[in-house]
Amino acid sequence: MKINPFNNPNINPYNRQQKKAELAEQQKNRVSDKVEISSAAKEMQDGSRIQMERQARIDQLKVDVESGNYKVDSKKVAEDLFKHYRG
């Protein structure tokens, strides 16, 4: 009979038992992940509400332009352009 000293499963059963116990202890001590959403991120989520309101306004403006009900105040446009380019 040939005795192979390598990969013998019956060698040192205490060591295997100890490794199992250590692994179980590590599993028990493992800390779970925790996620917190910052206030800035919460504000960004509220931004979707603002986007929806803005989109509703854009849709209303499109309807007004297509129907011919949208009137442009040329004086106000000129004032705003002047403010924009002159600071």
What does this structure look like?
With 87 residues, this protein is mainly alpha-helical. It has a domain at 41-86. The protein has helices at residues 13-29, 39-67, 74-86. The longest helix has 29 residues, at 39-67. The protein starts with 12 loop residues before the first helix and ends with a helix. Residues 33-81 form the Anti-sigma-28 factor FlgM C-terminal domain. Residues 1-35 are annotated as: Disordered. Residues 1-15 have a biased composition (Low complexity). It comes from Jeotgalibacillus soli.
SSE topology:
Elements (H helix, E strand, L loop, with lengths): L12 H17 L9 H29 L6 H13 L1
The tally of strands reads: 0
Gyration radius over CA: 36 Å
The biggest sheet, with number of strands, parallel, antiparallel or mixed sense and barrel status, is:
none
Please give the count of helices.
3
**Any low-confidence stretches, pLDDT <50, length ≥5?**
none
Helix content: 55-70%
